[in-house]
Specification:
This protein is of the alpha+beta class. The protein has helices spanning 2-51, 92-107, 134-146, 151-160, 172-181, 186-194, 199-212, 235-246, and strands spanning 69-70, 73-75, 81-87, 116-122, 219-222, 225-226. The protein is built from 8 helices and 6 strands, in the order H-E-E-E-H-E-H-H-H-H-H-E-E-H.
Length: 250
C-alpha cells in the first residue's frame, strides 16, 4: 500500500510539472506572437495604406530612339569598351545622371558605331529599411517591361515620375499604370509583376555590384573600373575614359 501511494504521488508531481511547463511554453509563445504582431502590424498597415492610395496623376513620356537597343543594353556586345551602370530607380542622383549625362552619351557615335556596349544593372538599395520596397518593385516592373522589349521606355517613365524615397511614387498600382500608358500587354505585365518573376536576376545583379565594390548609385564602370568612385561622372569624364580605352590606355 505504501509503495502504491509513493508512485501515485510521484505521478501527480510529474503531471503537475508537465502542466507548469506547458503553461510556461504557452506564455512564451504568446509573448513571441505579441512581439511579432507588434512589429508586423505597422508594416502591414503601411503596405495596405500605400497601395490603396489613388494612382493620381503622373508624367507620361514619348518613347525615345536609342542606338542598338537590346533588352537593357545598348550597342555591340563585342565592343572594345563595356560600360556598366548600377542604379536605383528611387535615387535622385541616378535621375540627374539619366537626364543630363546619358543623353549626351547616347547621342554620340560611340554606341551607334559599335565602339561602346552600355548596360543598365539593377542595384535597388534605398528601400532596404522600408516595408513598401518601392526600389525593388520598380526594378521588378522594369524587368517585366524588358520581357516585352520595352525596358528603356519603362526606365524613362520611372525616372520621370520619381518622387520622395518610399513616398508612394512607385506603388504597385502606379507601376502598373505606367505600363498601361506605354501600351504594354497589361495582362502579361501584371502576371509577371505579381509573380515577381525576375527576383532572382535582380538579386544576382545586386550581388554583382556588391562584389565590384559598389556602395552608392549611380556607379559607372568602364571595362571593370569605376570611372569616378562616389561621384556622378560627367559626360566629359566618361568620354575621356572611353577615348583612353579605345586608344589602348585601359
Amino acid at each position: 500500500m505504501t509503495s502504491y501511494k509513493r508512485e501515485d504521488i510521484k505521478a501527480q508531481k510529474t503531471k503537475k510539472k508537465r502542466k507548469q511547463r506547458m503553461i510556461t511554453l504557452l506564455w512564451i509563445g504568446g509573448i513571441i506572437v505579441f512581439l511579432v504582431l507588434l512589429f508586423a502590424i505597422p508594416n502591414i498597415y503601411n503596405i495596405i495604406k500605400t497601395n490603396s492610395q489613388p494612382i493620381g496623376t503622373f508624367v507620361e513620356i514619348t518613347p525615345a530612339v536609342r542606338p542598338l537597343e537590346n533588352g537593357k543594353t545598348l550597342g555591340n556586345p563585342n565592343a572594345k569598351v563595356k560600360i556598366e551602370v548600377y542604379e536605383d530607380f528611387q535615387c535622385p542622383s541616378c535621375k540627374e545622371y539619366t537626364n543630363i549625362v546619358e543623353p549626351q552619351l547616347f547621342q554620340s557615335t560611340y554606341i551607334s558605331s559599335g565602339q561602346v556596349y552600355y548596360e543598365y544593372i539593377q542595384w535597388p538599395f534605398i528601400d532596404s529599411g522600408s516595408a513598401t520596397k518601392e526600389s525593388h518593385q520598380a526594378a521588378n516592373a522594369s524587368m517585366c517591361a524588358l520581357e516585352q522589349g520595352r525596358f528603356w521606355d519603362y526606365h524613362d517613365i520611372l525616372f520621370a515620375n520619381q518622387g520622395a524615397e518610399n513616398g508612394g511614387s512607385f506603388t504597385n498600382k502606379r507601376l502598373q499604370a505606367f505600363a498601361e500608358s506605354l501600351g504594354l500587354d497589361i495582362t502579361k505585365f501584371n502576371k509577371c509583376f505579381s509573380a515577381n518573376t525576375y527576383s532572382a536576376e535582380i538579386k544576382t545583379e545586386y550581388q554583382k555590384g556588391v562584389d565590384a565594390g559598389v556602395n552608392s548609385t549611380p556607379s559607372v564602370f568602364l571595362n571593370g573600373k569605376e570611372v569616378t568612385p562616389g561621384v556622378i561622372p560627367t559626360y566629359e569624364q566618361i568620354k575621356s575614359a572611353i577615348d583612353s580605352a579605345l586608344a589602348g590606355g585601359g
